[in-house]
Amino acid sequence: MKRLLLTILTLTSLATVAQPARDRVIPNDPSKYRPLTAVHAGAGKMGYTQLVGSKEVTSNFLYLHSGVIEPKSGIGHHFHHKIEEMYVLLTGEAEFTVNGRTSKIKAPAVVPCKLGDAHAIHNPSNQPVRWLNFAVSETKGRGDAFDLGDTRVGAAIDPIPVFVSGRLERDKLRANNPAYTGKGVLYRRVFGPDIFSTSWNHVDHVIIPAGSSSGQRQLEGIEEVYFVIKGNGAIAINNDKAALKPEDAAYGLVGENVTITNDGREDLEILVIGTSTTKQKGLSLQTTPGKPKAMVLQMDFKVPKQESEAFEKMYRSVYVPAMLVQQGYLGSKLLRLYPENISKEIQAEPTTYNYQIQISFDTEENRRKWVASSQHQIAWPAAINIGKEYKWRGYDVMGEDDQTQNKR
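RESULT FIELD:
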């Protein structure tokens, strides 16, 4: 109890000294751009800077880069094994390549570069183009690249892109949406989690009219990075407020309450990138208060020591195969009690039950169908013939964070 109380106090103190909102806002200053040539073996030159990096967030968001691609210049054909990117064209027109197929894309537009897809961008015009690059990695803070030595200069052009792309157009936005509840806010989810293989969760295009706000949004299971396309306003993070101006970037962390307000006279247009804090699609944690996500039955057994091997074999060879064919079966675990010396060391509650089988179904109704099935008439006797005493309890699953799924 003392240790739990200390943990709660520590978390509370950390919350009170959270990073001020003004430190979350990063200006995009072209005078500080770093000059680069032959980026990924591409043509010409460009300037770029990093606005938000992996150290600023807890999710697997890797970076937000901003820059200018000079005329007759670009980023060469390359791919990544561990990260996904999304190129954003803010001005002009450029040639985008995905897996060797090239099309002209006109700003304002977004092109995701999905995991394992080779990609490039080339500016064949006589004018510089403004560009952003968002990235999310499979592993926190890790990036990689493999260059193909292809500038894509003079590439054949497909009149219709054969790769995923999206445009940031006002007429596609809709008001009265549940994601951004402020009065008159226009919104469109350009890309959802199904587009990506990493923990990238969404790409939102949002316009907040003068005098309105996004509405307070709690970041449950996600973190967000914001880029101001145009307009002036403010971002409030847990009621701590900071100003926003065109081309500023900002970010909100998991669990925080974020409100973006338009304090100017014109529309405030922002691009919102959301990353889940797990690699599972969407939220891994239950988000509907009071509504079960699934159910779990815990069955405790007293298994004689000499029968331990037989009981474990029964679980693998009889019990699991019998459940695999059942409707709504989600998974199971076989647990063996710690040895007595470890149980005493951790001050575990004394018990004479030394094994537990946990089974999970999507609903209690489907679990009962399993109990009534012919397969159960084989599996259950096999279990209780070895586990001489038993008891059970049923639970509704109200939240879940299964990190083993993320490592597969």
